[in-house]
Amino acid sequence: MKIITTHKGSDFDALACLVAATVIYPDAKPVLPGTVNANLKNFLAIHKDIFDLWAPNEVDLDTIDTLICVDTHSWSRLDQRFSVLSEKSDLDIIVWDHHEEGDIQARESHLSRTGSAVTLLVQQIEKERKLITPIQATLFLIGLYEDTGHLTYPSTLPEDAYAAGFLLSRRADLNILGTFLQPAYGKKQKEILFDMVQRAERNEIKGFSLSVSQVEIQGRVENLAMVMQMYRELMNVDVAIGIFKDVEKNKCMVIGRSGVDEINIGVLMRSIGGGGHPGAGSALVKGANPDALLETVLELLKGNQYSSIMLSDIMSYPVVTVKDDTPVGDVAMMLREMGCSGMPVVDDSENLVGVVSRRDFRKVKKANQMQSPIKAIMSRKIITIDYDRSAFEAARLMIRHDIGRIPVMKDGKIIGIISRSDAMMYFYDLLPD
């Protein structure tokens, strides 16, 4: 067996390296250590199933013949379960790392002091002309930006910038980066934020607190989206709208932030020619009068631009369930034929008793277990949500409980199911207008 792993306390660069290595070594299993940082944990709660990650205790150490280490080459930084591999004399080891220090002796080493480790793997992906998805490109860019401070740290090299450009050409989504990374905050941003607070107006629209501010800016200003997020937090409002007027170029940048389910900023910004996702969005409007633009935005907020996207809009239905006494092998075949990653389990009275996912099948160690009832391996940790709740609330439940799907209930019966894929369609603004 060939596995890829990275350091404990994994950050975005570590996960990015792990996934990038699977592109280069498609026959290897990516094994993520059990400890990850908080930002990465939230990211994985939504995206875990996409990358098919394995836990260290799901791997049979005796069958490992090749170890690929990324973003580290020190035995002490690997999950402690893998420490025994250091005594395996016939183990083939490959290393990809941007750190100089390390005690893992590898047959093949790719060591270079780039700003981020994922840069090395992205260079190889480009060299081999490997295909990557927009979501992979986004993850790789998050890892690269995290380790280089958005390409501002002194350790950043030209190779990092070239890699970032390549990932953007592969449709990496900059809107998603701001959700998981805290960008740099400098003197210019601080001055703009102070000016915004001084000019702020506070209102209430349909029960939600709203703050708007108009400021003039000179030339290009980086990280205005981050300024808006801080502005909303400082003003302690549900929704914040900023209009930034570039007098020299006669254009306005409108940026919005929402912390409530009922107001979808992406929908609002699309109405004035921009875009975004439910919690954040922006629009560039040329030749607009800031006062008239603000009036337009306020009218849209008062009208029908409140998010009508509820669970019924994005959940999957009808729901295919399986009885709790169905053999494990039969359920595996059903999942394979349906092309889904899990399903609810019910008893003879159609009461929900569990949920089974592809990950649960990793508990099967012997062939005769395929004849056992599915209740033997299903998850009994049942988290449900009522049909009249919002998509945001469902996503929060997935993050809080680290689960990949939630049955949607009405009057005690399952009427649908929302999965990580459904939530991703919501957060990545892939829903139809």
Textual characterization of the structure:
The protein has 433 residues and is of the alpha/beta class. It is built from 14 helices and 17 strands. The chain has a six-stranded mixed β-sheet, sandwiched between helices. It has a five-stranded parallel β-sheet with strand order 2-1-3-4-5. A three-stranded mixed β-sheet has the order 12-13-14, with no helix packed on it. β10 (275-277) and β11 (280-286) form a beta hairpin. The longest helix is centred in the first third of the chain and has 15 residues, at 134-148. The two termini are 46 Å apart. Residues 304-308 and 429-433 have low confidence and may be disordered.
